[in-house]
């Protein structure tokens, strides 16, 4: 029973956020509600949800894995200053293009790297 409740709690915590949190960010939130929950439990459950296709795991080079409840086709943009990960909606799932070449696509991950608008205006203020 307790395990089922923790699973639901972890999934709900992820669904309430738009910021593609790490397991640590979910942990920081949930330990306030349930002091018995461990980071290992959260990490394990998030990975299982991702393996079962309930959520999406976003693996970033040299950074901690981020988790995403939004399963609709979209790309991500990563701000190299604040490490915010944003959703970039796409109209046609990219795998359809590749299917034209007879290549069977399992997964597509496109990552735009750059600076978000908030960090751009912060940087401009520092210069002014
Ligand atoms: Zn930023
Ligand atoms: Zn996303």
Write the layout of secondary structure elements.
Layout: H1 2-15, H2 23-30, H3 39-51, E1 56-58, E2 66-68, E3 74-79, E4 85-89, H4 95-99, E5 111-114, H5 117-127
Parallel strand pairs: 3-5
Antiparallel strand pairs: 1-2, 3-4
Helix pairs in contact: 2-3
One zinc ion binds next to helix 5.
Summarize the structure.
The protein is an alpha+beta fold. It is 40% helix and 16% strand. The protein has helices at 2-15, 23-30, 39-51, 95-99, 117-127, and strands spanning 56-58, 66-68, 74-79, 85-89, 111-114.
Task: Characterise the protein shown here.
- With 128 residues, the chain is of the alpha+beta class.
- It has two domains: 1-69, Winged helix-like DNA-binding domain superfamily/Winged helix DNA-binding domain (Arc Repressor Mutant, subunit A); 72-128, 2-Layer Sandwich (Dna Ligase, domain 1), CATH 3.30.1490.190.
- Helix content is 40%, strand content 16%.
- It has a three-stranded mixed beta sheet, with no helix packed on it. A two-stranded antiparallel ribbon has the order 1-2.
- Strand 3 (74-79) and strand 4 form a beta hairpin.
- Helix 2 crosses helix 3.
- The N and C termini lie far apart (58 Å).
- The model has no long low-confidence stretch (mean pLDDT 90).
- The structure holds zinc ion (2 copies).
- One zinc ion binds next to helix 5.
């Amino acid at each position: 029973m307790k395990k089922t409740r923790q699973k639901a709690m972890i999934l709900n915590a992820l669904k309430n956020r738009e910021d593609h949190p790490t397991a640590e960010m979910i942990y920081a939130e949930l330990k306030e509600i349930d002091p018995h929950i461990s980071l290992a439990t959260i990490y394990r459950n998030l990975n299982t949800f991702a393996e079962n296709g309930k959520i999406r795991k976003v693996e970033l080079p040299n950074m901690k894995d981020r988790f995403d409840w939004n399963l609709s086709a979209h790309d991500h943009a990563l701000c190299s200053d604040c490490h915010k990960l944003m959703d970039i909606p796409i109209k046609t799932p990219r795998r359809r293009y590749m299917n034209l070449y007879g290549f069977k696509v399992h997964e597509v991950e496109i990552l735009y790297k750059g600076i978000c608008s908030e960090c751009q205006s912060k940087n401009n203020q520092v210069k002014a």
